[in-house]
Structure formats: C-alpha cells, structure tokens
UniProtKB/TrEMBL annotation:
Region of interest called Disordered, as start-end residue ranges on this chain: 250-272
Coiled-coil regions listed in the entry: none
MF-aspect GO terms: DNA binding; DNA-binding transcription factor activity
Alphabetized UniProt keyword annotations: DNA-binding, Transcription, Transcription regulation
Ranges annotated as spanning the membrane: none
Pfam families on file: GntR, UTRA
One Gene Ontology biological process: negative regulation of DNA-templated transcription
Name of this chain's protein: GntR family transcriptional regulator
Length: 272
C-alpha cells in the first residue's frame, strides 16, 4: 500500500471515529426528534460535512451496538434506543452510585437549596418537633447529561447544621456520612405512577402528562433514627424498577402502621 493510500485510510478512520462520537452523543442526548427519531442520512451528512456512505457505515456500527434501530416503511427511519437506569429496590444507594455502576456519567443540577419550616408530613416522617426547620433541597439528576429525575429532599437542620455549605451535586449520603458520621442503613419507600405537571415537565424536559414514577422515601441511620424524607420523580421512559420478592417467612419487616394500600418497599445499604 502506498503512503498516500495509507494516509487516506487513517484519515478515513479518524473521520468515522469523529462522526461516531458525535452520533453517539446525539443518540444519548435529549435533542433527538419525536419518539427518538434521528435526522435522515442526508441531513446527518450535511450536518457533519461527510458523505452519506460514512453516515451509513457509522449507523451500521451503532445498530450493531444496540444504540439505534432502523424501521422501514412510511413511518420508518432511524431511532435512538433509549437506555434506562435500573433502580434496584433491594439495595439502598445514592443515585450517583446507581448511575456509575451501570456505566452512566452521573450529574446533577441544584434547583434550590434553602432552610424552611418542616411541613406536617415531614414532621411526622422524621419524628420532629412542631416548628422544626429542615434543609430543603431540590435537584435534577442527570445520566449522560439527560435529565432522569426530580428530587426533593428534606433533612433536619438541628442534626445536620451547615449542610448546605457542602457540594450538593453528588451524593448527599456521602456528605452526611463523611461530615456528620451518619450512615444510611435502611429506607422505606412507596411508589405510585403519576402524570407530569407543567412545572415537573419543564424541569425534566418532557411533555405535560408524560408518565412519572413518584417515590416517597424515609431513610434511617445506624441507630434506627429517620433522617431523610424525600419525594422523587423518575421519568417513566428513562428508568426501570427492580424489586426483590420474598416468601412471607423471609420478607423484610415493613412498617404498616399507616394502613396505606400501596406497596411499601424496604431497602438495605450497598453504599452511596
């Protein structure tokens, strides 16, 4: 092979690698069309300044990798295969740990962080005195830069002073364990399906009415004291729930004092 031919081969491979990187980013982002439809091969070729042959080769690679699927017919095209985050209710861990363990890049955007009077349901959940104040933290969680959940966390100020001076864009469990010696050991969670409101849809980059999984959680420390009350909303198109089932004789102890008809799920720690 001549030097010119070899150089052309290398340049072609570099070009394909560059286009593949850009297409992988497009596929994993929120900037694809309706129902995850990608632009046409012609549009992608114009967008990236390459031939349709190069685009077709890269899409072949992405299809083999399971990142896109091609459909024929009038409503056909190339569609992104939406990756889902697995939420394992048999394990208690911070969302960043879940994401990293599954190969996602974890991130978060802090919407608000303030000190407020605890609402009645938080007072009850955390066994607080009436009039107690809590750290009220609202964050949007990101997986590979895609918004997957809207989290609303309340933590007692008296027990965790100056919590808001710490970084809040990673695991709160990690901060609480390191700074305050408090370890999350178990949590009780209740889940119900809801439809996204205007504000929730805007925060998560979805349409009003899209399905969400609403999870209310109370987390307990190593002494059995509740220290976190949270209400999280997970996108139905980006998350999948895994729950372990046991026979009655082996099931975890679940608090049923509330008399609620929904399913309570108890989690054990695996780190945060």
């Amino acid at each position: 092979m001549s030097a010119n031919a070899a150089g052309g081969t290398v340049r072609g491979r570099v070009l394909r690698d560059t286009v593949e990187k850009k297409l992988r980013h497009l596929v994993s982002s929120e900037h694809v069309g309706q129902e995850g439809r990608l632009p046409t091969e012609r549009e992608l070729a114009l967008q990236f300044g390459v031939s349709r042959t190069t685009i077709r080769q890269v899409l072949d690679d992405l299809e083999r990798a399971g990142l896109v699927v091609r459909r024929r017919g009038r409503t056909g095209g190339t569609f992104a295969v939406t990756p889902r985050v697995n939420l394992d209710f048999g394990q208690l861990a911070g969302i960043p740990s879940y994401l990293r363990a599954q190969g996602f890049r974890a991130g978060a955007h802090v919407v608000s962080a303030r000190i407020v009077s605890a609402e009645p349901e938080t007072v009850e959940a955390l066994n607080l005195e009436k009039g107690a104040v809590v750290h009220d933290i609202i964050r949007v969680r990101l997986a590979d830069e895609v918004r997957i959940s809207l989290e609303h966390t309340r933590i007692p100020v008296e027990r965790f002073p100056d919590l808001l001076t710490n970084p809040l864009d990673d695991s709160l469990y990690g901060v609480i364990a390191e700074k305050y010696g408090c370890t999350a050991t178990r949590a009780i969670e209740r889940m119900v399906a809801v439809a996204a409101t205007d504000s929730q849809a805007e925060a998560l980059g979805i349409d009003v009415g899209d399905p969400l999984m609403a999870i209310e959680r109370v987390t307990y420390d190593q002494s059995g004291t509740p220290f976190e009350h949270s209400s999280d909303l997970f996108r139905g198109d980006r998350t999948r729930v895994i729950a372990w089932a046991h026979t009655p004789g082996e099931s975890a102890h679940v608090d049923t004092e509330s008399g609620s008809a929904d399913q309570a799920l108890m989690r054990s720690p695996v780190g945060s």
